[in-house]
Specification:
Length: 352
């Protein structure tokens, strides 16, 4: 099959890590007989420098036409003096909005080889950890009516049934490709929007009889993530709760250089990116960990292209590389073999 991918390498370590993810996709293409066509487009700081704005129209149009988008990271000290709409980070919100991406998928995966990086006790974490948080991205309190009153202020949390249903369907769809458990997280003892989330979830659940559904209040969920994280498979939740819980869950995995993410909408086209930033302190030094980006590319294979076997091949190659003792500086520990960005990419490719 043929796939058109727009790469938005962005700033800092962006170009270093995207180069490795592209190599890996090409190796997958060769092995499984697919062709990936890549087109690079500017966004972020580099777009400010070359086109005068963080998200050129041409980049948006190219992303809209693509089968999927792979993004590195944007931002850096060079553009820190800029304010509000002129900042490189504006490109991310702009792309998510233009592509109508309403579901953010953030896996929190702790590889057993990196268990020591997890701040929890070994008996709690067991052998490994694999949770997927699906966060609603375009509704809720971050987008509701807000304002000031005399001596006060207010924010509004609002959701339509349609907004809730479409993100729940993404969550259930993902659960079908995993361990078939969905936990819907809300505050239904207090919030009316949460009660609506439960109603819609009970309805959607009927279309996925193989999936086990449970409900949890957000305060309890934040506690359970620390007490017994292995009870979770897929967590689906609204925007603000998801923002907070996904950061909490990512801490369980130790390294920021390992965590992938996907933003999905109504169509198969998604935007895939590591959760870390542009790490300007290590840009261009061949030390950045490319694994988060490589695993984001694996998510693209799974969720946008329905290439499950190919996605697993990438994930297994990452696991094997870690098993064989190779580490970039950020996840290195005594007795392990320290490698750079390019070498890590080559070792993973070799194992595919
Ligand atoms: P950061 O994630 O870039 O870096 C935090 C720390 O983690 C740094 O010490 C960095 O060296 C390290 N790190 C990050 N990714 C790594 C990797 N792949 N391998 C090894 N080490 C890695 O966060 P920050 O320093 O707060 O932000 C730097 C810039 O990135 C800022 O301009 C910020 O606005 C931007 N940012 C962009 C995104 C994005 O594009 N999605 C996300 C967060 C921050």
């Amino acid at each position: 099959m043929n796939f058109n991918i727009v790469t938005v390498s962005g700033d800092g370590i962006g170009p270093d890590i995207i180069a490795e993810a592209k190599n890996i996709l090409n190796v997958i293409g060769k092995k499984y007989n697919h062709t990936f066509h890549f087109t690079e487009k500017p966004a972020g700081g580099i777009a400010i420098d070359t086109c005068g704005c963080p998200l050129p129209e041409d980049t948006i149009e190219a992303c809209k036409k693509a089968d999927s988008v792979l993004l590195g990271a944007v931002g850096g000290p060079k553009w820190d003096h800029l304010g509000g709409n002129d900042r490189p980070e504006k490109a991310l919100l702009g792309l998510r909005g233009s592509l109508e991406l309403f579901a953010n998928l953030r896996p929190a995966v702790l590889h057993k080889q990196l268990k020591e990086a997890c701040p929890l006790k070994p008996e709690i974490i067991g052998d490994s950890l694999d949770i997927l948080i699906v966060r609603e991205l375009t509704g809720g309190i971050y987008f509701g009516k807000r304002g000031r009153t005399e001596g006060g202020a207010y924010d509004t949390m609002a959701y339509s049934e349609k907004e809730i249903e479409r993100v729940l369907r993404v969550g259930y769809g993902a659960a079908m490709k995993r361990r078939k458990k969905v936990t819907v997280v809300d505050k239904a003892n207090i919030l009316e929007t949460s009660r609506l989330w439960r109603e819609v979830a009970n309805r959607v659940a009927k279309d996925f009889p193989e999936v086990e559904t449970s409900f949890l209040y957000v305060d309890n969920c934040s506690m359970q993530l620390i007490r017994d994280p292995r009870q979770f498979d897929v967590i689906v939740t609204e925007n603000m709760f998801g923002d907070i819980l996904s950061d909490e869950a990512s801490m369980l995995t130790g390294s920021i250089g390992m965590l992938a993410s996907a933003s999905l909408g109504e169509t198969k086209r998604g935007m895939y990116e590591p959760i870390h930033g542009s790490a300007p302190d290590i840009a261009g030094k061949d030390v950045a960990n490319p694994i988060a980006t490589v695993l984001s590319a694996a998510m693209m294979l799974r969720y946008s292209f329905d290439l499950e076997e190919e996605a697993r091949a990438v994930e297994n190659a990452v696991t094997k590389t870690l098993d064989d003792g190779y580490r970039t500086a950020d996840i290195w520990s005594e007795g392990m073999k320290k490698v750079g960005t390019k070498e890590m990419g080559r070792l993973i490719a070799e194992r595919i």
